[in-house]
Amino acid sequence: MDPMQQYLEELAVKVTRFDPEVTPEEVARWNYIFGYSRTEALVIISRLRANVNGHRLSDGQWDLIRANREAKGHSRETYAHQLQLWSSNSSFQVRQRSSGPSNAISTYIFKLGGPFPDIESLRRAVEVWAEARSGQGEEGDTEFACVNGAGKRVIENWLETQSPPISYRPTFIRLSWSPKNLSENSSHPTLGIDCTLPQHRMQDINRPFAPAQNECPVWYFFYGTLMDPQTLQKCISIPQSPILTPASIRGGILRTWGRKYMALVDGPATAQVHGCAYRVLSSEHEEYLRFRETEAYEVVRCCIALDSGEGAQEEVQGLTFRFRRLGELDADGQFP
């Protein structure tokens, strides 16, 4: 192992041992914004918390910019680090400037091969989020991997820096679909909830968070054109008209995007949105929905109150599509 990489690994172990508050969600945020691997993120977080480089934001400074920065995916620590990059000439600065969040949120698929014969070997080598997919190729059944834009860059950098050189270069195909990354260890991501707070982490291993990443069938809450049975039927390609149930969720508000699209975003815990719920029966149907909503939205957890008639309600844990491009929302567009 390269001496520097070995040092980083050892330091990362120390960070997780003495700073258990570094959550998977925080690591994912650093990967999303800067493209860092888990090890790099842990090391940099530890240095920030130890005030190694002196880049800190006062409470007053953070209060002034918090709403704007959080809308772009930043936490107080990630923005402090960004200020550090802007004031230095580090190699990380070059990487961050060439790859912003707009590219990091994209999803790519590529055929596994070379040093990555399967999804586990990919995860071990580059420490990025990756989802296994199966399909038909020229040679029959073929294994693919889905990664986000930050993961794509990490894979490309890893391949370019191997010694001896590796000739394998995957062909990445961009998928414009809604990302779905449901944590096993916390409620992240959940509509209207800050999942980094301790009360939203796993308290009992016998009561995992629901829905799970690959759980199916699964309830979905719709609030826009998918509330129309004919539109939904055409989207998921089923022969019969789907059964939609009147429903509502809390923790979100509806805004407008492009003067015509509904966009669900986080709101107060008491905020309520009315719509319809549908029980998606297969992962294939779910993928159709994710492609329809595009990468402008993401799949998040929510509690759905089903209206069973005569005022009675049944609550189920489900999913919905939350808008991601907050900077593109219409300034004056909000539904009652």
Number of helices: 11
Looking at the structure, what is the overall shape? Answer: globular
Strand percent estimate: 25-35%
Give the helix level as a range of percent. Answer: 25-40%
- In total, the number of strands is 12
Q: N-to-C terminal Cα separation, in Å?
A: 58 Å
Summarize model confidence as the mean pLDDT: 79
Order of helices and strands: HHHHHHHEHEEHEEHEEEEHEEE
Low-confidence stretches are 1-8, 10-20, 88-102
Strand order of the largest sheet: 5-9-6-10-11
* C-alpha Rg (nearest Å): 21 Å
Instruction: Classify the secondary structure makeup into a structural class.
Output: alpha+beta
The biggest beta sheet, please? 5 strands, antiparallel
Any overview of this molecule?
- The chain has 336 residues and is an alpha+beta fold.
- Helix content is 34%, strand content 26%.
- The protein has helices spanning 3-18, 24-34, 38-49, 59-71, 76-86, 91-98, 101-104, 119-126, 149-160, 229-236, 283-293; strands at residues 107-111, 131-137, 140-148, 173-175, 218-222, 245-250, 252-257, 261-266, 272-280, 297-309, 312-323, 329-334.
- A 5-stranded antiparallel β-sheet has the order 5-9-6-10-11.
- Strand 7 (252-257) and strand 8 form a beta hairpin.
- Helix 1 (3-18) crosses helix 3 (38-49).
- The chain is globular.
- The chain starts with a helix and ends with a strand.
- The model is unreliable at 1-8, 10-20 and 88-102 (pLDDT under 50).
